[in-house]
Specification:
With 97 residues, the chain is of the alpha/beta class. It is globular and about 40 Å long.
Length: 97
């Protein structure tokens, strides 16, 4: 059991519940498709890459919109993606240890 907070808020309700109840928890850093314009999707990918490089990981969420999937596929086939590893969410959530 784990809790993931998708609000992008430092004081998210779900993250607080996870922390207080000793559940593994994570917080979404970026929603890939909050805005479906190609420029905004690409900006979200760049932001997630920069955060991942700085912190060692980032949680990027997306919906199953065709534009989202197409953008992610394009990124995964790019040279920039070779530096990154797609991992299950369980690999990056925090445990209260």
């Amino acid at each position: 059991f784990a809790i993931v907070d998708g609000t992008n808020s430092r004081q998210g309700f779900a993250t607080d519940i996870g922390y207080r109840n000793d559940y593994p928890y994570g917080m979404v850093n970026y929603w890939l498709d909050r805005d479906l314009t190609p420029n905004k999707i690409n900006q979200s990918l760049r932001n997630a890459m920069e955060l991942s490089e700085a912190k060692g990981s980032a949680i990027l969420m997306l919906r199953s919109y065709p534009a989202s999937i197409k953008a992610l596929q394009k990124f995964l086939n790019s040279a920039a993606a070779k530096k990154f590893q797609i991992a299950p969410l369980s690999a990056v959530i925090k445990n209260n240890e």
